[in-house]
Task: structure prediction
Amino acid sequence: MVTGKTEGPRGARATALLAPLGVALAAGAAVAFVGAVDPGEPGHYPTCPFLMLTGLYCPGCGGLRTVYALVHGDPVAALGLNPFVTLMIPVLVVLWGRWTLRAWSGGTSRGAPAGRSVHPAYVWSLLALMVVFWIVRNLPFGEFLAP
Result:
């Protein structure tokens, strides 16, 4: 017979951690796959659709090779392939950590509106930086940013 008992604090914490831990597991599996299967070898991964259609680099072009370089301990090569992705990985790890801590404690983030982990101004700033990187890496003077 099922009673009307609710989950205790430990059960609620475990349930709240399912999403961040699931994301960590999926990201870890993806990184392990990219680390095992070299994106520099032709035929392992599809071509970037934006590059294929326009001949221009998107903000993510070189990202798989960047992750491969980082997995194999070569941060200099990673920066040369895609500095945006290389610099965003630590940011994503910090955001994931904040999300996990917030899920564990049941709290909210300081400075962010209720229900959000990051203030919208930061998200818009990140998107603006990404668009600037996207444009500059396709201009002649930004050639050094191309993968």
